[in-house]
Design goal:
The protein has 432 residues and is α/β, with parallel strands linked by helices. The protein folds into three domains: 3-24 and 236-364, Rossmann fold; 30-234 and 384-388, Nitrogenase molybdenum iron protein domain (Rossmann fold, 3-Layer(aba) Sandwich); 396-425, no CATH class. Helix content is 44%, strand content 16%. The chain has helices spanning 12-21, 30-44, 46-56, 70-77, 82-100, 139-152, 170-178, 189-198, 215-224, 249-260, 275-289, 295-305, 314-324, 336-340, 357-362, 398-415, 418-425; strands at residues 3-6, 107-110, 116-123, 126-130, 156-161, 183-186, 208-210, 229-230, 238-243, 267-272, 307-310, 328-332, 348-351, 388-395. The strands form three sheets. It has a six-stranded parallel β-sheet with strand order 1-11-10-9-12-13, with helices on both faces. A five-stranded parallel β-sheet has the order 6-5-4-7-8, sandwiched between helices. Helix 10 (249-260) links the parallel strand 9 (238-243) and strand 10. The chain is globular and about 85 Å long. It starts with a strand and ends in a 7-residue tail after the last helix. It binds nicotinamide-adenine-dinucleotide (NAD), L-histidinol and zinc ion. Zinc ion is lined by residues 237, 258-259, 262, 361.
Length: 432
């Protein structure tokens, strides 16, 4: 049942905690299943990947059938309408422009001791992009993953995408080509993550794996972390809408359903200060569900994980929002800035009545791969920095080594590491 809460009710805390801690993904054995798949992929390479792909995605590919060739891409891309291609370009240009502003500055200076210090940002050599494809195709996620990687300067971009029943999504291929993906493989789930992390006969391993996915993908990313880097665990979608009663209930209902339709494990929450308005939104949800093609998924998500919370004032809404730490937050209010400044935890904030979350999913520019499951408390959306790392730079000359070296020699002695001390001392008081 959809949660219906009022902060004035006696058991509000208990109910709200139940909402926060409810397990949304119905997959109790995911970790063990994923572990077995990863071990198998590491051991048997392509053979295992092909077997799992054929089983989970209902396919019949041969051992050498994992790669999607340039010719296959051509055939698929030719099916894309001009209108869809134009929309993809609008999205791509806007995402590129926003992410270009994230390119970080290097640091290089000489301190008062005469030591040159700094760092240089370098892109990772190879990145694996997981593009989800189990229940819906996500051309927009291709752009959101691939563009920051290219902007960062990644040499080799490898994309994996499941193609259930062997069906390739033409717009996914168009998005991959538009954003400069170098290699594409038809595979999903844990087997795809394992192939990217460990490499197989067909796929060379990558350095980092990014992108959202279902519980199997999330568990696999967690398990391969260390062998490769990962961006974050971006799981089932979430939206929190904070709205007053001046919004058309039908608009807010559509916003809540926009994320509910992703997945039965998605979560949509409305916080408002008017109980009658909450009921009006609920009715509007029912009306929309009568016509939406993905109503079965959206209504299960809304029934199982949705919530309507009535607060006394907006300060209560701020406090609850920080506890929810939603992936997406809409502030459908007259003065969204006032509330936004007080909020600490949200993956992306959509300000005002004319900024539906879906605009950020496609064309606004900032990334739509965002922290879910309350991880917005400590992490941010995907961006150029996920594909880069800082190499520190340190340069002494003879005088500056003479200035700071003796302290290093002392500390090395204290730590009982004589070779450390020697390697500094041996250079001290030398004419340059
Ligand atoms: N946070 C974001 O930015 C973002 C963006 C897009 C999608 N999403 C989320 O990504 C998810 C996509 O999930 P999806 O399922 O559609 O696609 P998916 O590509 O993540 O998963 C499909 C794969 O799951 C594996 N799988 C399915 N059942 C299995 C089983 N019983 N055992 C082992 N493996 C199994 C299969 O290998 C299959 O190829 C949704 O939850 C959606 O909300 C998030
Ligand atoms: N809302 C999703 C992230 O939670 C991203 C997406 C892709 N396509 C549509 N929506
Ligand atoms: Zn979405």
């Amino acid at each position: 049942m959809t949660f219906r809460l009022e902060t004035t009710q006696a058991d509000f805390e208990a109910q709200f905690n139940a909402l926060l801690s409810a397990k949304r993904e119905d997959a109790p054995d995911v970790n063990k299943i994923v572990e077995d798949i990863l071990v198998d992929v590491k051991k048997r390479g392509d053979e295992a990947v092909v077997e799992y792909t054929n089983k989970f995605d209902r396919m019949d590919i041969a051992l050498d059938g994992l790669a999607i060739s340039a010719e296959e891409m051509d055939i698929e891309i030719a099916k894309v309408s001009d209108e869809a291609m134009d929309a993809l370009k609008v999205a791509s240009d806007r995402i590129k422009a926003f992410h270009a502003k994230q390119i970080p500055e290097d640091l290089d200076y000489t301190d008062e001791a005469g030591v040159r210090l700094g760092y240089r940002w370098k892109a990772v050599q190879a990145a694996g992009l997981y593009v989800p494809g189990g229940t819906a195709a996500y051309p927009s996620s291709v752009l959101m993953n691939a563009i920051p990687a290219k902007v960062a300067g990644v040499d080799r971009l490898v994309m994996v995408v499941p193609t259930p029943d062997g069906i390739i999504n033409p717009l996914v291929m168009a998005a991959a080509r538009l954003s400069g993906v170098d290699e594409i493989y038809r595979m999903g789930g844990a087997q795809a993550v394992g192939a990217l992390a460990y490499g197989t006969e067909t796929i060379k391993p990558v350095d980092i794996i990014v992108g959202p996915g279902n519980a199997f993908v999330a568990a696999a990313k967690r398990q391969v972390f260390g062998t490769v880097g990962i961006d974050m665990i971006a799981g089932p979608s979430e939206i929190l809408v904070i709205a007053d009663n001046k919004n058309d209930p039908s608009w807010i209902a559509a916003d809540l359903l926009s994320q509910a339709e992703h997945d039965t494990a998605a979560q949509s929450i409305l916080i408002t200060d008017d109980a009658d308005y909450a009921r009006a939104v609920e009715d509007a949800i029912e009306t929309h569900l009568e016509t939406l093609p993905r109503a079965d998924i959206a209504s299960e998500s809304w029934e199982e994980h949705g919530a309507l919370v009535v607060v006394k004032d907006w300060d209560e809404a701020v406090a609850l929002c920080d506890r929810i730490a939603p992936e997406h937050l809409e502030l459908a209010l007259d003065n969204p800035d006032e509330l936004e400044r007080k909020i600490r935890n949200a993956g992306a904030v959509f300000m005002g009545r004319y900024t539906p979350e879906a605009i950020g999913d496609y064309v606004a520019g900032p990334n739509h791969v965002l922290p879910t499951a309350r991880s917005a408390r400590f992490s941010s959306g995907l961006g150029v920095l996920n594909f880069m790392k800082r190499n520190s730079l340190i340069q002494c000359d003879a005088p500056s080594l003479n200035t700071i070296g003796p302290a290093a020699v002392t500390l090395a002695k204290e730590e009982g590491l004589d070779a450390h001390g020697l390697s500094v001392a041996i250079r001290l008081n030398v004419e340059s």
